[in-house]
Amino acid sequence: MTTSTRRALILSGLGAAGAFALGACSNNTPRRPRPSGAEAIDARVDATLDYLFTTYPDTVALRDRAVGMLVMPVVTKAGLFLGGAYGKGALRVGGVTDSYWAASSASFGLQIGAQQYSHVLFFMTDAALEAFRAADSITLGADIEYAVADEGGNFGGDTVTMGVPVVALVFGQAGIMAGVSMKGTLYTRINP
């Protein structure tokens, strides 16, 4: 076999392999459309609310008294002395999505680890809801009642204290990191 026929054989073999590989990439199988950013957030919000109200039935009364809810299905927090957290969610008013929001925070101090959790802000007054809706970004402060599920998966009876304009519930924690704090969390309106 001469050098030129060897080259021709190798090149034709590579050409055939390349054609086969390209053909396999486009095999005309139907692809399911991926949900858009908004659809994906809404699906996660629905699943999170189903989980919340099924796992913690006492929160149904809180939902029924609230004029709106900001639902953050997954907030991821990580830190090694410097820390940060981020998640996306939706503001629901009257059971429908009003707007989309991102939650972010930064922290510094003795911390190590990573975790994910969900949280819902229940707006108990029209004034609190309207102040939140009017802003493009807002940091909620001391006028929030924070509640974290205890080891038994319960929220205390004082969780539904109606003397505060916003009640924040944190639940579904997974991972290893001491403490969940939402103080200083910046909420920013997004357009997914």
UniProtKB/TrEMBL annotation:
Residues 105-188 form the Ysc84 actin-binding domain. It comes from the Bacteria. Residues 1-21 form the signal peptide. Keywords: Signal. This is Lipid-binding SYLF domain-containing protein.
